[in-house]
Structure to design on (377 residues):
């Protein structure tokens, strides 16, 4: 295949890349919106650079769709979101240092508070503090204990530069802990009764993310903060509100940068699965440095010119080998597909995540920034 360096198609000048479908993300947002209705705020969780899809680009799409706000972990992601969505609230989940008060001020971010110590430090670090209180309803991670919330709210009310805009929890379950979502929700409801009695219920109560949206419609409260669903990553088993979603990651591709038929002059055949005499070896310009795992399951393939080419171990930082013996027309510069549709065949996300020995979210979030994002719609 000829590579035209003047072409408009950015992928033509790349050696490896991933294709991200922004209209799939817009579609998924609309599916969530129609499931929860107009009255529930959607705070799009764009942590981990929007699950690898690019926080800024995804925020631009969601801003145009009318999203209510965002959740983020890193200041870098928050900055990228702010550049593309100047007006909407951005909630920082626990994870940033209070030394960053001036950036929180500059970008107009909302921080999370889980303890009196955090409240005190943040109220010094930021001139006018906008905050959500996080409560831990049984996830054993960040968040105030339910019993601490009343004291925290009472203390915050006395600080003139602090505005508590919301209270949230992450409805998630530890493996082996059983289905505790309903118990977690009832802990939140008890807190709500107490806050309403004390007259200090924050404006936004938020509990559900992706799983809750699908399985617990009664837990919508004022806002939800789904992440995975926006990118088409969801397990619809037992969904009471099944959604029709599209994957945001359309493809992972790399170019064939070397092709040769080996002969005996190269020396003995390596004692590794898949190697043999006189085979045709191809090299793809992608490796574990781009976020592929150090080793792939045996049987993992790339598709070149519509044919499956087995991937040969081991993987290298920037290269991997494929067996092109059965793809005789493959040549230097051709495109190889590690994920996606091509001609007659396709490698789907479930096949890829099994070969990566991870799950679908693990594939999205494990890809490295060096695997250039090409946006398609
Ligand atoms: C990760 C995370 C989310 C989003 O979770 P999904 O399962 O991807 O929807 C929401 N809120 C918090 C606090 C999180 O850490």
């Amino acid at each position: 295949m000829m590579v035209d360096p003047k072409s408009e198609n950015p992928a033509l000048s790349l050696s490896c890349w991933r294709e991200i479908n922004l209209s799939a993300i817009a579609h998924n947002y609309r599916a969530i919106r129609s499931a929860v209705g107009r009255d529930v705020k959607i705070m799009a969780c764009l942590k981990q650079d929007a699950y690898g899809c690019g926080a800024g680009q995804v925020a631009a799409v969601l801003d145009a769709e009318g999203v209510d706000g965002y959740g983020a972990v890193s200041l870098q992601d928050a900055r990228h979101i702010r550049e593309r969505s100047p007006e909407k609230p951005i909630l920082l989940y626990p994870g940033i240092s209070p030394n960053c008060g001036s950036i929180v001020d500059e970008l107009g971010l909302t921080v999370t508070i889980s303890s009196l110590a955090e409240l005190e430090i943040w109220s010094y670090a930021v001139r006018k503090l906008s905050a959500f209180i996080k409560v831990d309803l049984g996830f054993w991670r960040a968040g105030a204990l339910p019993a601490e919330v009343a004291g925290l709210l009472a203390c915050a009310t006395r600080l003139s530069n602090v505005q508590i805009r919301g209270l949230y929890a992450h409805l998630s379950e530890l493996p082996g802990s059983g289905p505790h979502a309903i118990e977690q929700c009832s802990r939140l409801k008890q807190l709500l009764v107490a806050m309403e009695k004390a007259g200090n219920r924050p404006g936004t109560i938020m509990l559900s993310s992706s799983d809750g949206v699908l399985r617990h419609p009664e837990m919508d409260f004022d806002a939800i903060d789904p992440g995975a669903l926006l990118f088409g990553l969801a397990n619809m088993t037992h969904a009471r509100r099944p959604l029709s979603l599209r994957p945001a990651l359309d493809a992972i591709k790399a170019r064939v940068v070397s092709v040769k038929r080996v002969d005996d002059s190269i020396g003995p055949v390596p004692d590794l699965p898949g190697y043999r005499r006189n085979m045709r070896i191809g090299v793809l310009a992608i490796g574990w440095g781009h976020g592929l795992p150090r080793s792939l399951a045996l049987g993992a393939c790339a598709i070149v010119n519509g044919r499956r080419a087995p991937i040969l171990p081991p993987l290298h930082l920037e290269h991997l080998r494929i067996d092109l013996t059965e793809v005789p027309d493959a040549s230097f510069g051709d495109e190889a597909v590690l994920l996606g549709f091509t001609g007659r065949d396709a490698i789907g996300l479930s096949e890829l995540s099994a070969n990566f020995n991870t799950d679908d979210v693990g594939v999205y979030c494990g890809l490295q920034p060096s695997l250039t994002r090409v946006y398609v719609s």
